[in-house]
Write a structure and sequence with these properties.
Helix content of chain B: over 70%
Number of helices of chain B: 14
Oligomer: heterodimer
Largest interface: A-B, 43 and 44 residues
Order of helices and strands of chain A: HEEHHHHHEHEEHHHHEHHHH
Strand content of chain A: under 5%
Largest sheet of chain B: 2 strands, antiparallel
CATH topology of chain A: ABC transporter involved in vitamin B12 uptake, BtuC
Distance between the termini of chain B: 20 Å
Strand order of the largest sheet of chain A: 1-2
Number of strands of chain A: 6
Number of strands of chain B: 4
CATH topology of chain B: ABC transporter involved in vitamin B12 uptake, BtuC
Structural class of chain A: mainly alpha
Strand order of the largest sheet of chain B: 1-4
Number of helices of chain A: 15
Number of domains of chain B: 1
Distance between the termini of chain A: 45 Å
Shape of chain A: globular
CATH architecture of chain A: Orthogonal Bundle
Radius of gyration of chain B: 20 Å
Largest sheet of chain A: 2 strands, antiparallel
């Protein structure tokens, strides 16, 4: 069963990640060192997996949205909403933590449905439709927390972002659970095919009897829930809901991860393994630069270079031109 | 007997203007001292740099593209100018010229990549945003102050429009840019090409219009506007700052959409964008006047306005389609 590997498209991001890790092996001291303390693993690689969990979650949701030919700009703001709802409920009520998390995820699910309805029923372009919540969502989150940073001490909620499960960060369990669930739904049922059909040719999909509106609404809901889980992790990490800062620019990282991972922005075929690899690539890049003492403000520059380079490599025209130049050299 | 049927293309512009009038009228009744020349003059001063980037963004969106890099380019431009003037003793005019050149060149490179290699504008300008902001931090990680006699002289310029109210130099510059942009959009070949490109690229190509140069030109123009907005921001803040203008691209896009320009391109007015920016500015002023409202209401208000205008455009699109 090579289905999850999706041909060779996961190969390029994997090679990129491999090269980066090789660089780290030689130039970053103690990069591959592991240590067991209090029954859990510590080390730079574990840090990357732990800190990359948010972008991985967002990228999994974003993959399905992009596969339908859309894009979800609101995920960063939805993270803030989920964090704010959870923090407010846990500090101001006696509800048990699972209920609190359920309410937070339910709230962002509703917002995701709002996105989905705007795109599928009203027919607004996805960039615009999700732009509304990208702007307003953070406002709602700040309204919920009254513009303050709401801190909490609740152990169960703190566990989500800081706890360990089987010696590994609990966040990793969450990523694997969401990824596994999404894989089951899209690869073991016809849903994945439906999504790809809608992204490839919506009219044809409708004529084939694919419930395209339902599929589109569904992917935005799923993306919102992924963002909600990421938001809970982000809030739990710092034991507080910081509505104005959390998830800022995260939507761009997620889109970047998906595109680097080999899913085209135009929709159609998708690969979640590629997106997760793309997310890990970004996080490894960031962690590498931090451990090489590069100023955090300059980190965006190499990120930008990678984005444009990946775009160019995926462009047929650019490949043709490069091919011509190389061919000429070979002949000379 | 014919009924008055407004041109569907004008309806969003009229709706935007109506919103501004209602908003301003409501605020004037609610808060004493709101309806004054001073508030209006400040509106033009405080929103000058957003206004100028929004003008450039209007052209990009009219052409059917999008540019996420404006905030980064603005920050780069402010810190470049501030460093050249403050650190190297350049004359401000020379420094600003260099800043404008850099911005235009940067926009042109992005336009070239988008045009030549058929890359999605969304991703290329996203890379541009990271790149420009990172470069701004490379120049200087800290804010750099500017003190130069030229700056003091420019800030003294102003047209008095009422008691304790004057249109400052940067407000006048914005108004000037708006007029030039209206002229370019409606009375030049470049402007018509932009509308044609955004309306239907295939048709524009078949008509023999210079699609490639127009697209590169649109992004170059937006780079220029962003850099100019950066220059204006140095006058407004008296300093250059690499972290200035985070999220500015969102405000600019929101102003353009609220101003009635279709995000699919080909339909809209530069004048609408001016009104859109003034609406955003008025909301901000209302929040300032009313001590009880907090800044997050601004975001929610912009979101609601965006939703309203997008739904209106959608409705109009369906109505015109039905009439055909």
């Amino acid at each position: 069963m090579k289905d999850w590997f999706a041909g060779g498209r996961v190969l390029y991001p994997l090679i990129g990640l491999g090269l980066l890790l090789m660089f780290d092996f030689f130039f970053v001291p103690n990069f591959f060192q592991f240590e067991v303390r209090d029954g859990r693993l510590f080390g730079t690689v574990i840090d990357i997996l732990n800190q990359g969990s948010k972008v991985m979650l967002l990228a999994i949701g974003m993959t399905l949205v992009i596969a339908t030919g859309g894009v979800d700009l609101s995920v960063g703001s939805l993270m803030a909403v989920a964090g704010a709802v959870a923090a407010v409920l846990v500090t101001r009520s006696d509800l048990p933590v699972p209920v609190v998390c359920g309410v937070a995820l339910g709230a962002v699910l509703l917002l995701g449905a709002f996105n989905g309805v705007l795109v599928s029923l009203v027919g607004i372009q996805p960039i615009v439709a999700t732009l509304i919540l990208m702007v307003a969502g953070r406002g709602v989150a700040m309204l919920l927390t009254d513009g303050q940073i709401v801190t909490f001490e609740n152990e169960a909620l703190v566990y989500i972002g800081n706890g360990a499960f089987l010696g590994l960060p609990f966040t990793l369990t969450l990523v694997l659970a969401v990824w596994g669930g999404a894989l089951l739904l899209t690869r073991r049922t016809a849903l994945g095919l439906f999504i790809e059909t809608v992204g490839d040719n919506e009219t044809a999909a409708r004529f084939c009897g694919v419930p395209n509106r339902l599929v589109k609404t569904g992917v935005y809901c799923f993306s919102a829930v992924c963002a909600g889980v990421a938001g809970l992790i982000a809030a739990s990490n710092i034991k507080a809901a910081d509505s104005s800062r959390v998830g800022e620019m995260m939507e761009l990282d997620a889109i970047f991860a998906v595109v680097v991972g080999g899913t085209a922005l135009t929709g159609g075929r998708f690969t979640m393994a590629g997106s997760v690899t793309g997310a890990l690539l970004i996080q490894t890049l960031t962690t590498t630069m931090v451990s090489l003492n590069v100023s955090p403000a300059i980190i965006p520059v190499p990120k930008a270079v990678v984005i444009v380079a990946v775009c160019l490599l995926q462009s047929d025209k650019f490949r043709a031109e490069i091919g011509r130049v190389l061919g000429r050299k070979a002949m000379a | 007997m014919s009924r008055f049927v407004p041109n569907a293309r004008l309806v969003p512009l009229m709706a935007t203007t109506l919103v501004l009038i209602v908003l301003f009228g409501f605020a004037s009744m609610q808060y004493p001292g709101f309806a004054s020349a001073r508030v209006v003059a400040n509106l033009f001063r405080d929103n000058a740099f957003l206004g100028i980037t929004a003008i450039g963004m209007t052209f990009v969106i009219l052409s059917g593209g999008i540019d996420l890099s404006v905030g980064g380019v603005l920050a780069f431009s402010t810190i470049l100018i501030a460093t050249l003037v403050g650190g190297h003793g350049w004359h401000p005019l020379a420094a600003i010229s260099v800043g404008l050149l850099c911005g235009t060149f940067f926009g042109a490179v992005m336009g070239f990549l988008i045009q030549r290699y058929e890359l999605p504008p969304f991703l290329v300008t996203l890379g541009g945003m990271f790149f420009a902001r990172g470069l701004a931090f490379v120049i200087s990680p800290e804010s750099v102050g500017i003190s130069h006699p030229f700056y003091d002289k420019v800030m003294e310029i102003g047209i008095p429009v009422g008691p304790k109210a004057r249109l400052t130099a940067i407000a006048l510059l914005w108004i000037g840019v708006v007029f030039v942009a209206i002229f370019v959009a409606h009375w030049t070949a470049f402007g018509r090409n932009v509308y044609a490109l955004g309306g239907n690229e295939q048709s524009a190509r078949l008509m023999g219009l210079p699609v490639g140069p127009t697209r590169v030109g649109v992004y170059a123009l937006n780079g220029f506007c962003s850099a100019l907005a950066g220059a204006v921001a140095t006058f407004y803040m008296g300093s250059g700052n690499p972290s200035m203008g985070v999220g500015l691209e969102l405000d600019a896009i929101a102003s353009v959409v609220i101003g009635g320009t279709l995000l699919t391109g080909g339909s809209g007015f530069v004048a609408g964008t001016l009104v859109g920016v003034l609406i955003l500015g008025t909301i901000q002023t209302v929040i300032l006047f009313d001590g009880r409202l907090n800044s997050w209401w601004m975001r929610i208000a912009i979101g609601v306005l965006l939703l309203g205008f997008i739904l209106l455009q959608r409705l109009l699109g369906r109505l015109t389609a039905a009439r055909r």
